[in-house]
Amino acid sequence: MSTQTLNTQISLDLQGQRLDAALANLFPQFSRNRIQDWIKEGLVKLDGQVVKKPRQTVLGGEQVELEAQIDEAVEVVAQEVPLDIVYEDEAILVINKPAGLVVHPGAGNPDGTLMNGLLHYDESLREVPRAGIVHRLDKETSGLMVVAKTVEAQTHLIDQLQRHDVERVYDAVVVGNIIAGGTVDKPIGRHPHDRKKMAVVVSGGKPAVSHYRVMERFREHTYVRVQLETGRTHQIRVHMASIGHPLVGDPVYGQRLRIPKMMDEEFVEFLQNFRRQALHAGRLSLVHPTTGKQMTWRAPIPDDMYALLKVLREDTDNYLEASSGYDEFDDDYGVEVEWVTDYD
Q1: What is the reported pTM?
Q2: Catalytic: which of 20, 138, 159, 171?
Q3: Nearest-CA neighbor of 99 among 306, 266, 289?
Q4: Helix then strand then coil, % of the chain, to nearest 5
Q5: Active-site residue, 344 included
Q6: What is the pLDDT of residues 45-55, one digit of tens each?
Q7: Which domains does the chain have, with CATH numbers?
Q8: How distant, in Å, are the alpha carbons of 94, 134, 262 from that of 268?
């Protein structure tokens, strides 16, 4: 076990929260139970004063000093897991995570995770909480993640995430026709009846904002690009479902499969067998924690989502061709707006 001193400021949007809850929000690499223990052990200072009550209410603006007792990565076994590293220097790694790879070991996934792979790739990451992981992607979501190689870099990146200064843009294919872009500004919390799910909640949720724009429309589906202002668990999946446009293939928040009428059987079969949420973290932009330089990375849409878009395009083209005898095209069946497979 090693001790690392972490410093940050409690943001004003955490005003009124319990100290342990606020610190769990500011330091997501640590569990809330671990933070409670550290508070009780006198390892947390607010504005230079030791506090030992996890229930203490924060006002917002306080300076926090946390003496973190780091041992999270020690018990995780290093395993060879293929990593698609798109960038690396002395402070950070940027990884393009494939769908199907779990980020952290946990119940049902004790090994074979991204964390196991990171420790095999770089043994020094044992000295960093959670092997340097600062944010997560769901198991079946693909795309870009940043990993810190030092505690200092991790703290800097977490601060950026808390200030909403890290730009994260996702590609998604949703059910239904979306005519124009928009914003979903709805708080997210635990589902009142199913604790494994998240939901838009009236009270007790955390602020969550997602901006989306239409990239391409099909007969019964829409390709959108979503930019996160916040980073709540399952945020895009919950937000899009809340406006009646769940992600294609989402096993948790999805609806009954929607098949356009007169779709070719092979296309129907493809949709029926697309078994993961059609979501890809395609763009990541942040300030480098040591150089201060703004950096941006892009990851092309993975093969399975590219194939999904191709099927939906061909289905739309086939329907237009079959309907060419009509004087006007019924926009209810969708129309191509822009063919995009990479970022501008």
Answers
A1: 0.77
A2: 138
A3: 306
A4: 25, 30, 45
A5: no
A6: 999 999 999 99
A7: 2-70 (3.10.290.10), 85-159 (3.30.2350.10), 167-333 (3.30.2350.10)
A8: 36, 39, 10
